[in-house]
Amino acid sequence: MPTSAPAVRCTDVSVRRGRVLALDNVSVTIPTGSITGLLGPSGCGKTTLLRAIVGTQRQVDGEVDVLGLPAGSAALRRQVGYVTQSPSVYLDLTVAQNVRYFADLFGTTDAIPDAISAVGLDERAEHKAGDLSGGQRSRVSIACALVGRPSLLILDEPTVGLDPVLRADLWRRFRALADDGVTLVVSSHVMDEAAHCDNLILMRDGGLVAELSPDDLRSRTGETNLEDAFLSLIEAA
Ligand SMILES: Nc1ncnc2c1ncn2[C@@H]1O[C@H](COP(=O)(O)OP(=O)(O)OP(=O)(O)O)[C@@H](O)[C@H]1O
């Protein structure tokens, strides 16, 4: 189990977006070198919490510390990778050119082959992103984040729209990254993805429901199925 300082510590974080209290006094700790799943129904505040951690969310009340610095600090730009929900890739560039573009920004061109391999796109490296499937484009986005060799990788619903084989493959790759010491935070609204995570942050209506491991979730609720366990936790709240 990781013993170092947490990668992220959120303390009493609240965010209002328009008329909605998107985050309501949320405090969570994300351990280093592990996979943390951020789970909860659509609209519960997952993206807002990820944005607060990355430092792109405006008007955050409370404290968000990332790798020992306030979220959004300039020194974190090279250490935090963020993959947003919709793949942001240049469709007229090849996979390799997309990844190279980010590698040039980070000064890490030597990391290009590894980043492409890590998402299983070696054979597509010279294909235009516009000719790829939606799931493959998502993986190009992930490669663009990986090429900067981030210590903290934030992935917002990276497996949406992927078939079960690709999803399993991507989770294997996330595990390999965590084994290499990278901290991953992965959001999903599909509870069965929780089984791939070391720690879970469960949210509902902008609030924290629980912060625990999948095993603790099962034993606390007496449910083996994680979806049932989440529902049982909500009903008990
Ligand atoms: N730009 C915005 N202006 C006003 N309200 C917003 C804005 N973006 C999000 N919200 C609201 O904030 C709340 C939290 O949204 P958020 O995107 O964080 O949820 P989410 O859990 O990531 O949802 P999903 O799983 O559907 O992506 C929702 O009620 C949403 O309607």
What layout of secondary structure does this protein have?
Blueprint (H helix, E strand, L loop, with lengths): L7 E10 L2 E11 L4 E5 L6 H9 L5 E7 L2 E2 L9 E4 L11 H12 L5 H7 L15 H13 L5 E5 L7 H16 L3 E6 L10 E6 L2 E6 L1 H8 L4 H11 L1
This protein binds adenosine-5'-triphosphate (ATP).
Structure overview:
Keywords: ATP-binding, Nucleotide-binding. Residues 8-230 form the ABC transporter domain. InterPro entries: AAA+_ATPase (IPR003593), ABC_transporter-like_ATP-bd (IPR003439), ABC_transporter-like_CS (IPR017871), P-loop_NTPase (IPR027417). GO terms for molecular function: ATP binding; ATP hydrolysis activity. The longest helix is centred in the last third of the chain and has 16 residues, at 164-179. A hairpin with a 2-residue loop joins strand 4 and strand 5 (69-70). Helix 2 (95-106) packs parallel to helix 4 (134-146). This protein has 237 residues and is of the alpha/beta class. The protein has a six-stranded mixed sheet with strand order 6-7-8-3-9-10, with helices on both faces. It contains seven helices and ten strands. It folds into two domains: 1-79 and 151-237, Rossmann fold, CATH 3.40.50; 86-149, no CATH class. The site of adenosine-5'-triphosphate has 12 residues, from strand 2 and helix 1.
